[in-house]
Structures
1.
Amino acid sequence: MRLPALAAITTGLMGAALALIFFYAPTDADQGFSQRIFYFHVPIALTSYACFGWGAWKALRYLRTRDERADLESYVAIHQGVIFGALTLITGSIWAKASWGVWWSWSENQLVLFLVLFLFYCAYFMLRFSVAPGPQRANLSAVYALFGVVLIPVSILAIRLSERFIHPVAFNEHGTNMAASQFFTFCVALVAMLALAATMYNVELAGKRLDARLRELREALQ
Amino acid sequence: MSYAADVAALTRKDLLLELRAKETLPAMLLFVLSALTIFHFALPHGTDDKASLGLLWSALIFTALLGLTRAFVAEREQGMFDALILTPADRSAIWLAKALSVLAFLVAAELVALPAFAAFFSGIDGRTVAAVALADIGIATVGTLFGAMAVAGRARELLLPLLFLPTAIPIVVGGVGGYLWFLALYDAIFAVLSWAAFEYVVSEV
Amino acid sequence: MSTEGKYVAAAYLVVFVVLLAYVLILALKLQRLGQEVAELVELAHKRREDREPDKAVAVG
């Protein structure tokens, strides 16, 4: 899909999502007004997973085809994943403060999981900056990206297990029992967020490809 | 030469090198004992057994990191990686041999660390020993792969902990909680992944 | 605004600010790319001069 079209769709969806979140969705009976953070926080988290998944897919493509472009696409996808991951942690922390009065809660599975993933994928960038550009760097990045995507379910399991000895605290159900209007709002927000990530991904990719082309041009002229 | 013979030869090489140099293992032993001592002072009085168990695992992970950082030093400093790649051995055999020698170092270090822990803090039960054994496999397999990655980069001693620690978190969870099945699952998944991925990590193309 | 409302606003504000930061970074990049293209145009003109020094060069 052409980038301008994608950006236009994102604008529309995001506008619709925000309108629904603040004018349509009912105030939650249990959690009150602060529950509305949920409509951004969870889609951002899911989008982050999607970005890491896409990055791992492109990494696999790179290892199969050795096509430089796949390496760049993998890198940009993971970059987006980390940005959305950081946003997950920040919005999650704000929500924790609003709901339970603490900025961090180790019994909030999603927050802990994202902390682990955030650490993991930040190391991805350290790895990339540490190695000179070239096929070797692309290989290492691809392998690491695949490790990351395998680590996600393993970490989820580990964190569930760790609850039993960290300290069992009754945690909230994140809207599994949602009203239809809430669910609809959530879905629109989710699609909007995914569209936003796709737009940002394509914008960044276009920018990096342009850099490469200009470098080529410069070399051709000198 | 067969795959098994290749692995055996490479493992023997690593172990012999260490036997002669006597650098890594004594350092790991000293480190684990010092770490446990520091942890004793870091903890307030009357901490329960579960908490001190957590310290054992922290000490083990960091000692393992020390051993892993040393594991590829010989290859790095003498450019042996290129020599190894040129051998007719399957690349993954290199990984397996290195992982086995790392495992040997870990076990040797723990033969001292576990009794020390039992003496300093609280007793060790069979379950913990089994958990440590399983964790060692996970640490050796994943650590060896990441160690090879770190060698390719500039700030190697910095890079290896950064790469290794997030992936090691589930190992600590499985260890402290005594979830042997989880550790076995982790080992199986990541051993296969590391074994398959090593080829790509050492290829220059 | 209630305290609850403030937290919700803060969460959405953070997302908005991150997006705007992204726009800023893109703007800077665009500026840099513009400079680079200008340099390359210079280079291209020079090359043409070197090859055909007497031919009139179209401007614009």
Note: Chain A has one domain: 3-167+177-221.
2.
Amino acid sequence: MRFCRKKAMDKAQMAAMLRDMLRARAFEEAAAQGYAQGNIAGFLHLYPGEEAVAVGVLHAAEPGDYVVSTYREHVHALVRGIPARQIMAELYGKKTGVSGGMGGSMHLFDKDRRFLGGYAIVGETFPIALGAGYAVAYRKLPEAVLCFFGDGAVNQGTFHESLNMAALWKLPIFFVCENNHYQIGTEIHRHSAVTEVYKRACGYGIPAEKVDGMDVVAVHKAAKRALDRVRAGDGPQFLELETYRYRGHSMADPGSYRPAAELNAYQANDPIAAAVHVAEHPYPSADAIALAGADCVTRFTDHCCEGGHLDDAAVERMRREIQEEVADAVAFAEQSDAPNMDDAWKAFHRNRRFETLMETAQ
Amino acid sequence: MSEMLYWQALNRAMDAEMAADETVLTLGEDVGLYGGTYRVTEGLMAKYGEWRVRDTPISENSFTGLGVGAAMLGLRPVVEIMTINFALFAMDAIVNMAAKIPFMSGGQFPMPLTIRMPGGVAKQLGAQHSQRLEHMLMNVPGLRIVVPATPQDAYWQLRQAIRSDDPILVLEHELLYFSKGDVDEATLAPPIHQAVARRRGRDITCIAYSRMLPLALQAAETLAAEGIELTVIDPRSLSPIDWDTCVRAVEQTHRCLIVEEDCRFAGAGAEFAATLQERCFYLLDAPIQRVAGMDIPTPFNGTLEAASIPRGEHIVQAARQMMAQQ
Amino acid sequence: MKAEITMPVLSDTMQTGRLTRWNKAVGEVIKKGEAVAEVETDKAILDVEAFADGFLAGPLAAVDTDIPVRQVIGYIADTPEATKTDSGGAARVAATTAPPAPPSAAPGAVPEKKTAPPDTLQPTAPAAAATPPDTAPSEKPASPLPPHTPTAAAAALQPPHAGGLQASPYARALARDLELDLSQVKPGPDGIIHAAQVLASALAPEDADLRRGPPYTIERPSMLRAAVARNMSATLDTPTFLISSRFATAPLHAAAKQAGLSLTLALTRACALTVAEDPWFNQVWTRQGLAKRSRVDVGIAVDTGDGLITPVLRDAASRPLKELVEDWRILLGKVKKGRIYPEDYQGASFYLSNLGVFPEVERFNAIVPVGASAILAVAAVGSDGRADFTLSCDHRVIFGADAARFLQRLGKRLEDLSWLATGEGGL
């Protein structure tokens, strides 16, 4: 009985993660389209290829945890539970956006969902997470702070400063490195003397692990383990997730510095395809095993044991629902009002509502 | 009401706020066991423990950023940066984070962060330890900057800064820490950014802040003996600036002299001069003048160091010259 | 080493002086105490005294210009070589600009380059050679205070734009409100019109419009004439009344002659004694209150041929007449030579104007100068042997009955002349 319930929960978990991965892909494709049509301006950094990281990690987090993210954070926000409408509206710079149109694509904030923002200066997520972790530790609450960053951020001074302080004071921070191998166009072996990022956490005595970031289940499991240790009071944990972005750094970047073969190889190992594959087929066919290769079989078998029974029709239904959700988000963003300068001043002065700054008359 | 030193007033303010509100905490290099390099946090670690008085490693950017993150979660951190010169390492935390997050989040996140920094030219500390830098910070929307010149203002303005939900920089002056003054801990403080007239006179409005205030007041005494009467305005705050008080004073004297220790080029005085001429142009009877530090890194040699920043006699001469024109 | 020669301050009211001549040429020897130049002030031509031994050095201020007090007008060098400045003394200190800024003063709008003597200026060529080419030439590395920013310096040095006047914004606004033509306002000592000049102009009576009359030229009045005009205009706010009487002057004339006095001096003594009897006549109205004088100083109008001056006999009621006679002789000598100083002609508490030498003048009245409460005008003796005495009084201090009693007592004093021979203040 107990075994069955566990299986049922896992199935729901699998379905939820698959749904979020499909949502993430569809959302980003709609964003790319909106950008191409001129409806979204500025910088736009898209996530396709890296979905397993956000989905796997955030599905391991609790609602009481805090999330600090980078400028490539639409999917983190989406998986964290911020409605697609509000994210898309923020990308469109509309008043109904999650940051009221004041932040934009790189600065999604949601206080209620403890989403502490997207930061557009590489290396800023460390001190923010450090401060949040300090506050949690000071209050002695069983909460964790999830800190996302890319492989390019680990050469910034704040990485070392913050890891040092986090370890020194045993702060409840989970450092998650999305290693997509490129800081814009510079590949990791050209920007880091030590290319295995997780090893760099050892300098601060922080337990670190490297996991395949293309395998959502593995990511989820590793994240769960790390967060358990954080909540147990073991101090900060570090997880390096090797992944890959299919697009360029941003919409302005064709990504032409990468060999086509490399891209194709990662696309062949598409985490969504893999997840769908896992979800749809409780038992692998011989063909499937041959196609996926040895590594996938291992993963695949693991999941099959724990179960998800999802058929083609269910996945199709899921895809349709997601298309509707994303189309609705785009329509909402398009129809929303733009903020005016009054809204900007209101946002700016909102926190001095109860203060007298100076006398206005003698 | 009791007489105390500037640093003691700051210490009393810290103690009062920490006692009143347990979300208030302080961090920085040597603020704990050591008691602060200017003694401002003396005795606080013993009283409030290490989680509320935290000695940090030398990592200005990250421990200032820590203050930002903690403030986002509702704490009221007071970050001490040992001198403003080191704040250049923390500029990202101050400018890109503290000043931007409340706005970029559409007003969702308050930023009850206070950053205390001593600065200014002290006694032969060399070019890297003699900077003012207020002009750099003034140019950042979202930051509020107070410049207490007296122990009383240090006490009031630090307490008000801690209670504010906006990021506020308290710029202290290294040569003011051991200046003495009466501090009334019971009286209600005036609004934190309100300017005050420290002296009234008919001829020239002299605007002077931080350590320039005592110089201006001394110069005003000298000038009064010659029949030149100065109104001396202590703006107390550089962002926002209490323009109404400044404008009213200039409208009465028709002449304005601005004194700043910081470099003249693109300094705080430039902002005062530009805005006051916009608002008082038709009531000005002479061009607005500035007495300011030289546009040169502060020399180590004591004589040259003293020559590179305003002294009382410069204020006296500038005022005389303004009056002699007419 | 060069010592400065500055425009001397010769009275508390003196703001500018007109340099009328240099007594020495550049390079000539100068002894301490010697008069190196002449300056025309309110009422007199005065010497500019040398305060050091040496040699006159340029640049010298131009002759016939109005120069603010304390401004440098020339230099005394300690060696003849040092007098040879750049352009051989051809450079002139501009007359209408403010004193040079001390090197440590805040750089201001004062056009420093125009006013500073050449040896404190940065010579253009060496400065350009000593600083990198991209450094603004106005930067002075040796200056103890920050130099002009290049733009500020450029603005400060700009001449007033063609056909334009330089006036402060406040002065312009005031002129607009007061409907005053700025071109009619005389600029301040720095060549710029400030509020003070606009207000003075607004309070000054309007000039007559001469354009419809005969052709004319404008000539600058002498300093003396200008000062009289200013002082007389200043009396406009004094509420004045006149009171007259006629007295025989023959007995006084005879007694004075016998005592070896001029009639004017005898009249002065008579007035001083009468004033001393009634302290109201020795008081003056001020904004702070009534100023009560403890001594009677009588100012006596004297015609210089180019206007009016009023040498003052101090303590004219109680000092021996002999002293007054001597004082008066000296004063008249100074007037004649044009070497009269402010302390000689300022500060009387009562005035006397005697036009008795003009037999045609039957009667006249005088204007009460600021600083006194009354002036007595004495006309020529008529066919009845009497002369008209008209007293002009400041009604804020003196009332009609006081004035009547004054004339009464003066009349008695002109009949009973015992005071002149013996007793009170006799010779």
Note: The domain at 196-324 of chain B is CATH 3.40.50.920 (Rossmann fold).
